């Protein structure tokens, strides 16, 4: 599994792109690719947990969603995660 960490600013482009992004995440959650996702409590960023086989698949996920390229959204970390519970 992989954790994608995002940092946000208040750029209006981010807020305009968010509904389509959330719809896509919901579809990928139903498909078992996105395990969980959501903003940090202070809305300074977000965390997405992906169940994909490798970093190349994470990069494909990021490239397929224009949300990750709008002003106000920065991918500030991608980490492999090996949970032992859940």
TrEMBL record:
Coiled coil: none annotated. Belongs to the YciI family. Signal peptide: none annotated. It comes from Actinoplanes philippinensis. Pfam families: YCII. Residues 11-82 form the YCII-related domain. It comes from the Bacteria. This is YCII-related domain-containing protein.
């Amino acid at each position: 599994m992989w954790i994608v960490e995002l940092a946000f600013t208040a750029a209006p482009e981010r807020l305009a792109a968010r509904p389509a992004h959330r719809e896509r995440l919901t579809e990928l959650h139903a498909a078992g690719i996105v395990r969980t996702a959501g903003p940090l409590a202070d809305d300074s960023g977000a965390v997405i947990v992906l169940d994909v086989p490798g970093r190349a698949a994470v990069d494909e996920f990021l490239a397929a969603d224009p949300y990750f390229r709008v002003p106000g959204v920065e991918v500030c970390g991608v980490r492999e995660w090996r949970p032992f519970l859940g």
